[in-house]
């Protein structure tokens, strides 16, 4: 069996993310990818079974990197406010440093690949976050909410600020860059909404 060419694999991974982020999964093809990478389609099939395997493997790798960044030094038993602020900072830091990964993972999340990719990386993440939320509710630091409602209030504002940051403009079409001050101000409003 041929050994993996790590340079080639990195090129394929980055080009896959670029193409999916720019044009969506439905417009992604192995032929276009091979052409963009300057390699043959046969070379891709040395490393991946098919298009689905390629997309899933790249997404799992990216999702794992994001999860590792989010959970790095995270203590699920810390206070709700401290832990949520750490989550905001970790997510903002990683996603601002990796906008291509963010855009790619968003497309994956909104696709049929979401369940497969999520299943491959979710156990540690979900167990840690479940423990964090459950502990905060038991200590009376968090309003008991259905997980989807809690998640929406806790993180949607952060992800919207990041979208404006990536676009470089606000909803009113003015130039926009996310600052630490605005991140903290928004976080304070979110924490206030989630506390009993």
UniProtKB/TrEMBL annotation:
InterPro entries: Homeodomain-like_sf, HTH_TetR. GO terms for molecular function: DNA binding. Residues 29-48 bind DNA. It holds the Pfam family TetR_N. Residues 6-66 form the HTH tetR-type domain. Keywords: DNA-binding. This is TetR/AcrR family transcriptional regulator. It comes from Chitinophaga fulva.
């Amino acid at each position: 069996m041929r050994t993996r060419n790590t340079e080639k694999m990195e090129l394929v991974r980055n080009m896959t993310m670029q193409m999916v982020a720019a044009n969506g999964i439905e417009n992604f093809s192995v032929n276009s990818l091979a052409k963009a990478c300057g390699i043959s389609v046969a070379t891709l099939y040395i490393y991946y079974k098919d298009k689905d395997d390629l997309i899933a493997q790249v997404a799992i790798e990216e999702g794992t990197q994001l999860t590792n960044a989010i959970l790095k030094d995270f203590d699920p038993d810390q206070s709700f406010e401290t832990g949520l602020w750490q989550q905001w900072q970790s997510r903002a830091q990683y996603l601002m440093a990796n906008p291509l990964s963010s855009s790619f993972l968003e497309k994956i999340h909104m696709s049929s690949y979401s369940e497969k990719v999520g299943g491959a990386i979710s156990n540690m993440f979900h167990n840690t976050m479940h423990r964090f939320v459950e502990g905060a509710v038991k200590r009376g630091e968090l309003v008991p909410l259905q997980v989807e409602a809690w998640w929406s209030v806790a993180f949607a504002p952060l992800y919207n600020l990041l979208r404006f940051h990536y676009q470089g403009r606000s909803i009113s079409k003015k130039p926009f860059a996310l600052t630490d001050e605005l991140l903290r101000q928004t976080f304070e409003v979110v924490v206030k909404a989630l506390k009993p």
